[in-house]
Design a protein that fits this description.
This is Transcription elongation factor B polypeptide 3. By secondary structure, the chain is mostly helical. It has ten helices and no strands. It starts with a helix and ends with a helix.
Length: 233
């Protein structure tokens, strides 16, 4: 093999390189990385998202990963909340001569933003409620209590405390009047009247006939005639 062939031949990856690449391909499954060297984590953890890196931080107990992850959290902070906000945080830390891990600053900023969003949502909700209340107050509402009428109702009710029995009595009277005015009742009344007139007419005829027959019989009685002539003689 010539020297040029040795230069152009690809280098075979080492076992460590293969393991690192395998970790990168399956970075979403990472959890506790306490047993992995920091120089290997420097190659693997930059491929994590903020959620994945947070899971690795919470899962790894008893080991400080900040030598590798602190600069990663600073990048996530700048990406999420802006470079200007990150510079303002660093300025305040220098002024107060304090230092915080960027993972803590990232979490604190997230809580602050969530609280600010909730407060803003509450204010918007209150504004909507006030606007709805204002619209409701301007709407026309039906009156639930009916005022007493000054006019007398057709059944004789003078107010809300009318007597139900009077109403029933008036209804019965009206029904009775309607019945008396009906044609059938009129026909029955006419038939009854004609019957009474016929009976009265028959009785008067019978009385007249009786009186006439009485007179005729007394004139034919010989005793009466004799007595009459005796008195005359």
């Amino acid at each position: 093999m010539t020297r040029s062939d040795e230069i152009s031949a690809p280098k075979s990856p080492s076992l460590v390189d293969l393991c690192v690449q395998k970790l990168i391909d399956n970075v979403r499954y990472l959890g506790n990385v306490g047993c992995i060297d920091l120089h290997l984590l420097e190659q693997v953890l930059p491929h994590c998202t903020a959620e994945q890196l947070m899971h690795v931080e919470k899962s790894t107990k008893g080991r400080d990963l900040s030598p590798v992850t602190d600069k990663l959290w600073k990048k996530f902070y700048e990406k999420q909340y802006g470079i200007k906000s990150a510079n303002e945080v660093m300025k305040r830390m220098r002024e107060k001569n304090v230092s915080f891990r960027w993972i803590k600053l990232y979490e604190a900023k997230g809580k602050e933003m969530a609280e600010a969003e909730n407060e803003a949502l509450d204010r918007i909700k209150q504004l909507y409620q006030k606007e709805d209340a204002r619209k409701q107050s301007r709407q026309i509402r039906p009156c639930t209590k009916v005022p007493p009428s000054s006019k007398r109702r057709f059944w004789g009710d003078n107010g809300p405390g009318y007597n139900v029995s009077n109403v029933k009595s008036n209804i019965m009277k009206k029904a009775k009047i309607d019945m008396l005015k009906s044609q059938e009742v009129k026909n029955l009344a006419a038939m009854k009247k004609n019957s009474i007139q016929r009976s009265q007419s028959s009785s008067s005829v019978m009385k007249k006939t009786g009186s006439i027959s009485g007179i005729g019989s007394s004139s034919k009685d010989p005793n009466l005639q004799k007595g009459y002539f005796r008195g005359r003689m």
